Each structure stands twice: as structure tokens, then as C-alpha cells.
């Protein structure tokens, strides 16, 4: 799976058809939910505690909209602690830009399992988690990302299908990351290292 971060992408500023298709797949605002997924009746707006939600008057289904959970990793090696793995995105949003390896948590997996799976999918590395850096909401509040520090159990770095490229960067030469949550996590990682 690719990264599912919606930040820096206002819904009204969709750039092209491909991006639009991605947005539709990624996240549908409540107003776009037209029919009940259980009984196919028309959904209507109904207010709970001052917040409007889509509601099915036929069977009682309510669309409780929540942020999407995601996980990402700062991968470091003990013998080269000033280098991290970055991946270059193949797909929107922010295709062609660099990020930490990560992505959406699938149903049935833990946040740690998601970080490990995404790292393997995007970099070819098997990783083990050392500690948690923190959790950030994206600027649009649509996604919540938990960042870990991890180290690789394997050597060969290979970009997966979602990535154009995966490579080691020193912290000094690392390019600006595409997402503010990733930038914030990297700042905290550097602060914790004491650099
Ligand atoms: Zn229904």
C-alpha cells in the first residue's frame, strides 16, 4: 500500500484526474456517502451532539467518520547512526518526493506490524522496532501517523512497487521530506540523538 497521508492536499485543490481518483479511493467525505452500505436506502444528515453525521433512517446505520491510522519508521544502523532510509514516492500525493517508509495500517495488524510491513514493501528491508518517536495528526486531521525508530535485520535495500527509489541518506544530506508529520518526526529523532 502507498502512504495515505492527505495533508497538503486540500479537497478543493485537486490537481488532476489521477490525484482525484486517488482521493476518492483514499477517503470519502461524509457528504459523498449517498447510500446505506447495509440496506442501500438513501442516507440523510442527522445531528449528534452538534455534529452532523450521515444516517440511514431505514436501518439505523451511522457513518462515524474517523481519521485513518498510519505508521512509519526512521530506520538506522548501529554502525552508521547518522544515516537513515528514505523512499521516493511513485504515487500521489507528493509523487517524486522523499519520505520515511510508512503507510496505512491494515485491518488485522498492529501499528508495529504495519510499520514493519510498510518498511519491507517500500525498502526490501526486514526491520525490528527499537522505540516509538511519537504520534502526529496531519494538518487536515484526516490521518494519524505513529513514528518508530527501527533497525534493519537484513542488508539489501531495494525500492518496492510504491517507491521509485530507496536509499540511505546522512541526516545532513537528507532532502526535505514531503509531509510535515515526517519532518516533525525527523526533528524529534535528531533532538533525541543529541545532535
Ligand atoms: Zn440502512
Structure report:
The chain has 195 residues and is α+β, with helices and mostly antiparallel strands. It folds into two domains: 12-63, N-terminal domain of TfIIb (Single Sheet); 68-193, Nucleoside Triphosphate Pyrophosphohydrolase (Alpha-Beta Complex), CATH 3.90.79. Helices cover 19% and strands 31% of the residues. The chain has three helices and ten strands; from the N terminus they run αβββββββαβββα. The chain has helices spanning 17-26, 111-123, 180-193; strands spanning 44-48, 51-55, 62-63, 68-75, 83-89, 98-99, 102-104, 127-137, 143-152, 163-170. It has a four-stranded mixed β-sheet, sandwiched between helices. The protein has a three-stranded antiparallel β-sheet with strand order 1-2-3, with no helix packed on it. A three-stranded antiparallel β-sheet has the order 6-5-10, with no helix packed on it. Strand 5 and strand 6 form a beta hairpin. The radius of gyration is 19 Å and the shape is elongated. The two termini are 33 Å apart. The model is unreliable at 1-15 (pLDDT under 50).
Compile the SSE list and pairings.
Blueprint: H1 17-26, E1 44-48, E2 51-55, E3 62-63, E4 68-75, E5 83-89, E6 98-99, E7 102-104, H2 111-123, E8 127-137, E9 143-152, E10 163-170, H3 180-193
Parallel strand pairs: 4-9
Antiparallel strand pairs: 1-2, 2-3, 4-7, 5-6, 5-10, 8-9
The chain binds zinc ion.
Zinc ion (ZN) binds next to loops.
At the fold tier of CATH, the topology name of the largest domain is Nucleoside Triphosphate Pyrophosphohydrolase
Widest sheet, order of strands:
7-4-9-8
CATH architectural arrangement of the largest domain: Alpha-Beta Complex
The distinct bound ligands, ions and cofactors come out as: zinc ion
The CATH H-level homologous superfamily of the largest domain: Nucleoside Triphosphate Pyrophosphohydrolase
